[in-house]
């Protein structure tokens, strides 16, 4: 059914259609509306046989899901930013134990300085945790990918994160086709766990494993993610058959076949990019785009196949490995390591900085001229950086970077000029 | 033979020269679960606990009692710690209950999740225990535990209190008593051992959550322990039992003295045995024979410095804590507790 709804509400409806049995909820912006809406649905009797746990922290939220999933219940939670960090020990534990929990990440920057706006710092902090990480471009995809996520998680016995840009998607209202219950039931069978806590057949889960088998356990975690490379496209195809939409999959090409320059990115920014690139192509520039939809597992072969004929790739990402550079760029360079393709790394949109058509086009044109710094900080205001560096050179007790910069920009600086 | 007792609290049979309640003198209903042929052996032989481990003894009795109370429909969540490590070295397990170990600090939340799953699936018959040592309970697991109490999740949480982080090599926890030697509170300097006026009483904090049932128990009185676990399993909602479990390795005591030390801790007043319902104390186990704390301390090397003349002030402080417990919980009858 077509609805004009907030992204968070659409996700809540999608999760409800998946018949979750245990949902744990802890508020953190910008995912909060999702669990609020689910709480209302459970309380109103809209989700049958579902327990809604109001926990004391994100660590408790995911830990409760670990217990409920191990007891054979389809389990869901959502988080963002600091919440992801606070639950990180449980994040690794859930994947290590092979528990098919689905978690929405309303992507948000990590502090300090505290920042509630969108970037991918939270999801990237868990990139090696063994979860499948799927990035969505729109609220329609968020709905569709959540439905696929439960199936994928349960087939592989692995937890899945659905990553959606905070505010840009979670808080935006758009037209979304909410599937019918019969469609979801036809796609997603009941949860049949590989391992379960059951008094009739007592097992011990979470045993200590020493050097004699730890390597094999880790290898199998990797192997399962490699299996997911096959399963994710299969599921996207099966989903399209029932729901009629191309959602999910490993990657999505936007006129990148035959393009000299291909922009690679993830998440919602592809929407703005598509408009910019259409304009550039109209001006005779050979440029396309490729969205990475599955970041873990990282679809190396698919990316190689899509990009092998490109002359250069511009990777645009909303995250930074401090002291190194672009994370998506690093991963992509590894995928393309034996191809003669220039890979430029651009980092932007950090902490919610707006990404506009105008500044994107300027950045792409710089990339096409192969004039990008490594890494390139998109839309950075170097005068602010220089002023702070000057302060630090001038005096030992130069103060806090965040507060100093606020003296230079924003409302504090504006007030000084009055 | 004396009249059949109305309740275990009134049992007063002693075997000659000991304070052990003899099973043979009790009617079948009141005999220990361990005396029955159909005991569940939930924590089975072959595990790797140290000789004289109080935690292994406490867990064995507690879980078997809970199994009997639930007709063997029980799931246990375990915090990281000695109990987890010595029972489940891959690929072996000593547990014959469905059992899960996730992390150090989340056993209460994992238990809450299991209980939620059982509720969602309509399996009201399956009950849940979460358990851990004092570090996993009073320190790192405290947030999740308080959350579980707050929501009144249908979980019995059992804390096996041996008053320090034993699995990592005997470091201080918030359950470590004043003056006690641990690897992080060594008996050096002006005030040797752990500082006084620190730590917390989780049973009292649990009571402050107004949960249906809170109790303390000790491995010297296993009938009482079984009774409290059985009682707890007869109640819905959040329940908390803290079991005093001496640790020969960490305390520097003889493995053969585990039960004796546990008894002396109770008899001197340092570890009061209480029961509380919905925040109100409903029962205390009276001290049978009031003992000076020195008798309890002298069996443990962790307190060896306390008994030296230089540290007489520490002995006084520990005795004052015991006396305070005795008056606060009314542990000694007006007649002096003797019968």
CATH top level of chain B is: Alpha Beta
CATH superfamily name of the largest domain in chain A?
A: Thiamin diphosphate (ThDP)-binding fold, Pyr/PP domains
Helix run count of chain B:
11
Distance between the termini of chain A: 53 Å
Rg over CA atoms of chain B: 19 Å
Q: What does the oligomeric state look like here?
A: heterodimer
So what's the overall shape of chain B?
globular
The third-level CATH topology of the largest domain in chain A is Rossmann fold
Number of helices of chain A: 16
The CATH homologous superfamily of chain B corresponds to: Thiamin diphosphate (ThDP)-binding fold, Pyr/PP domains
Q: How would a crystallographer describe the biggest sheet of chain A?
A: 7 strands, mixed
Overall number of domains of chain A: 2
Give the strand content of chain A: 15-25%
Q: Give the mean pLDDT of chain B.
A: 92
The CATH class of the largest domain in chain A, by name, is: Alpha Beta
* Low-pLDDT segments, ≥5 res of chain B: 1-5
- What proportion of the residues of chain B is helical, as a percent range? 25-40%
What is the ordering of alpha helices and beta strands of chain B?
Answer: HEHEHEHHEHEHEHHEEHH
């Amino acid at each position: 059914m077509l609805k004009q709804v907030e992204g968070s509400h659409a996700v809540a409806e999608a999760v409800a259609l998946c018949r979750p049995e245990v949902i744990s909820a802890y508020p953190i912006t910008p995912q909060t509306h999702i669990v609020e809406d689910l709480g209302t649905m459970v309380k109103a009797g809209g989700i049958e046989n579902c327990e809604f746990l109001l926990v004391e922290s994100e660590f408790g939220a995911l830990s409760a899901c670990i217990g409920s999933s191990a007891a054979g219940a389809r389990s869901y939670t959502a988080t963002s930013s600091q919440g992801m960090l606070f639950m990180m020990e449980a994040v690794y534990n859930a994947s290590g134990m092979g528990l098919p929990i689905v978690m929405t990440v309303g992507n948000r920057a990590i502090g300090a300085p505290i920042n509630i706006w969108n970037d991918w710092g939270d999801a990237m902090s868990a990139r090696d945790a063994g979860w499948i990480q799927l990035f969505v471009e729109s609220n329609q995809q968020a709905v569709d990918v959540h439905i696929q996520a439960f199936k994928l998680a349960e087939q592989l016995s692995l937890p899945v994160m659905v990553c959606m840009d905070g505010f840009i998607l979670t808080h935006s209202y758009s037209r979304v086709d909410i599937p019918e219950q019969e469609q979801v039931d036809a796609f997603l069978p009941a949860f049949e766990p590989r391992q379960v806590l059951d008094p009739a057949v007592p097992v011990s889960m979470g045993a200590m494993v020493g050097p004699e088998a730890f390597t094999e356990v880790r290898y199998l975690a990797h192997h399962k993610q490699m299996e997911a490379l096959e399963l994710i496209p299969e599921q996207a195809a099966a989903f399209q058959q029932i729901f009629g939409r191309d959602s999910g999959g490993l990657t999505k090409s936007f006129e990148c076949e035959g393009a000299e320059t291909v922009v690679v990115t993830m998440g919602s920014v592809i929407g703005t990019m598509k408009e910019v690139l259409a304009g550039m192509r109209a001006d005779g520039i050979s440029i396309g785009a490729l969205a990475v939809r599955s970041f873990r597992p990282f679809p190396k072969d698919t990316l190689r196949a899509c990009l092998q004929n490109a002359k250069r790739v511009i990777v645009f990402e909303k995250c930074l490995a401090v002291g190194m550079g672009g994370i998506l760029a690093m991963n992509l360079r590894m995928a393309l390591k034996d191809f003669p393709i220039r890979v430029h790394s651009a980092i932007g949109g950090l902490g919610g900085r707006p990404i506009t058509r105008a500044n994107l086009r300027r950045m792409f044109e710089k990339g096409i001229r192969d004039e990008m710094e490594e890494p390139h900080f998109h839309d950075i205001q170097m005068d602010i950086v220089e002023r702070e560096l000057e302060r630090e050179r001038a005096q030992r007790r130069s103060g806090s970077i965040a507060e100093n910069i606020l003296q230079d920009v924003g409302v504090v600086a504006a007030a000084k000029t009055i | 033979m004396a009249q059949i007792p109305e309740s275990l609290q009134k049992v007063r049979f002693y075997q000659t020269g000991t304070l052990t309640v003899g099973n043979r003198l009790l009617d079948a209903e009141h005999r220990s679960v361990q005396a029955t042929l159909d005991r569940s052996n939930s924590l089975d032989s072959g595990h790797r606990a140290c000789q004289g481990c109080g935690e292994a003894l406490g867990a064995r009795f507690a879980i078997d009692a809970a199994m009997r109370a639930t007709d063997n429909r029980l799931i246990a969540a375990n915090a990281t710690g000695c109990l987890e490590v010595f029972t489940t070295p891959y690929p072996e397990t000593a547990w014959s209950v469905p059992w899960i170990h996730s992390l150090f600090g989340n056993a209460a939340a994992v238990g809450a999740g299991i209980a939620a799953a059982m509720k969602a699936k309509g399996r009201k018959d399956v009950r849940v225990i979460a358990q851990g040592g004092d570090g996993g309970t009073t320190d790192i697991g405290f947030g999740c535990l308080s959350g579980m109490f707050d929501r009144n999740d249908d979980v019995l949480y059992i804390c096996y209190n041996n008053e320090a982080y034993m699995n990592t090599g005997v470091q201080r926890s918030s359950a470590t008593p004043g003056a006690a030697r641990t690897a992080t509170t060594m008996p050096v300097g002006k005030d040797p051992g752990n500082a006084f006026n620190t730590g917390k009483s989780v049973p009292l904090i649990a009571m402050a959550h107004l949960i249906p049932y809170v109790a303390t128990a000790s491995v010297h009185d296993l009938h009482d322990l079984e009774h409290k676990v059985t009682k707890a399993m007869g109640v819905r909602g959040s329940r908390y039992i803290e079991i005093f479990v001496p640790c020969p390795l960490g305390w520097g005591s003889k493995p053969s003295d585990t039960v004796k030390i546990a008894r002396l801790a109770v008899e001197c007043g340092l570890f009061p045995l209480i029961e509380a319902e919905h925040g109100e104390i409903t029962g205390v186990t009276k001290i049978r024979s009031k003992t000076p704390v020195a008798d309890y301390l002298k069996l443990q090397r962790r307190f060896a410095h306390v008994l030296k003349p230089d540290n007489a002030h520490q002995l006084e402080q520990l005795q004052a804590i015991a006396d305070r417990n005795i008056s606060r919980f009314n542990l000694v009858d007006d007649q002096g507790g003797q019968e």
